[in-house]
User: What shape does this take?
Amino acid sequence: MRIVDTHLHLVYPKAFSYPWLAHEPQLNRPWSVESYFAEAEALGIEAALHMEVDVIEADMLAETEFALNVHPKVIGAIANGRPEHKDFPAYLDKLSAMGGVRGVRRLLQGQPAELSTQPLFIENLKRLPDHGLVFDICVKSHELTVAEKLVAAAPGVQFVLDHCGNPKIAQGEWDGWARHIDTISSMPNVSCKVSGILANVDDKWTVDQLRPYVEYIIARFGWDRVVWGSDHPVVTLFADLTGWVKATEAIIAGCSASEQEKLLSGNAERLYRLR
Assistant: This one.
């Protein structure tokens, strides 16, 4: 089954500054596009979207431009952005001029909850549809109220909830996470990315431990509103790219070929305008 990876991080420390990596020693090194595709191609991953890697603001545009030209199989980018800034409309124009930008992400995890409730933030997000862009939301499970409020405040914007809402799988979190997923999935302008959950396990994780979370996401959002992402190289904290692909395949093995195609490639091509 062909796969489009909607969440690839590339790390080039000689070109860009990533302050947060100083606190992640296992990840704090170069992660090149060549090393990624050396593993990815054998797994059926035929294309990828680059996801911004929280570089410093001065590097945001350069990172996006770099990602759009780094490799022919990186077929688009989800750019870093700051909707809380007054100059965001001009920034959007610069992104649009690049061609190949498919969405914007402003990392919200660990940020003050009021950041994304500011009128300017919401007003600027409402500009995204005119540029054909979606907004990826990345929050931790205890911050999912932030996602709920943001999606409700901008019903004309297409959102993607990253990493299944980041359930704390190693701690067995369920009820609170599931209630938030119920609320978010009831809003028609949000899809969910089956990605990143291997950052929320420990080194004893199993496929059966992941299965109920992935199946719950699919049940709530439906097969037309889910996409797949590797979250490489963050996935390497407790597994590797191969392990995550094989776990995904095991979880959806009993599903129809049409359903698998929607999750692994079809929905991504439609949602991020890749066709």
